[in-house]
């Protein structure tokens, strides 16, 4: 069972519909039992980092989620702000994140329009099970003012350029993050979600 964690933030229904489209049941839940019994987890997020972290803390779900991710090594996919929440710290609100990945979330400092909105390709894609069938010619849909910077290049799964290179996807064991919205990225994005659902 794939559980999309409901902590009062994020466009959860569109992600759920995308999983259903490729034949996988995904439930939206804030129930601890559902999370404990999940084979995979999805952490979606839109909005402000500090608000999202506060919502997670208030939900009472963090001990359960941390146990699933860090101890049981359950695969988890963070999308957009959900990816950023996995980092150690964010400049948005100057607040600590979940700290699962050795990375920080930084604000774009550029003369280009911020937020970065629209379609972009990746100039680097690390081959693994999640990225199987994805190429540098595939475009993905972004909406973000902050980006992730890892402290270990081995974690980098996607690299995208917007004035400068930034990490648009990372992988650290069972923890996967995507800065872009796969559920809004047509066939390539749906393919990524299908790959995640098929992870062993």
Summary, kept brief:
The chain has helices spanning 12-21, 32-36, 49-59, 62-71, 81-85, 186-197, and strands spanning 2-5, 26-29, 40-45, 76-80, 89-90, 95-96, 103-107, 116-120, 124-125, 140-144, 146-150, 156-162, 164-172, 175-178. It is of the alpha/beta class and 200 residues long.
Structure characterization notes:
It is a single chain. The protein is an alpha/beta fold and 200 residues long. It contains six helices and 14 strands. It has an eight-stranded mixed sheet with strand order 2-1-3-4-14-13-12-9. 44% of the residues are buried. The model has no long low-confidence stretch (mean pLDDT 97).
Number of helices: 6
Average pLDDT over all residues: 97
Amino-to-carboxy terminus distance: 13 Å
- Describe the main β-sheet briefly: 8 strands, mixed
Strand order of the largest sheet: 2-1-3-4-14-13-12-9
Find the count of extended strands (DSSP E, 2+ residues): 14
Unreliable parts: none
Instruction: Classify the oligomer.
Output: single chain
Order of helices and strands: EHEHEHHEHEEEEEEEEEEH
Helix content: 25-40%
* Class per helix and strand makeup: alpha/beta
Query: Tell me, what's the shape?
Result: globular
- Residues in β-strands, percent: 25-35%
Radius of gyration: 15 Å
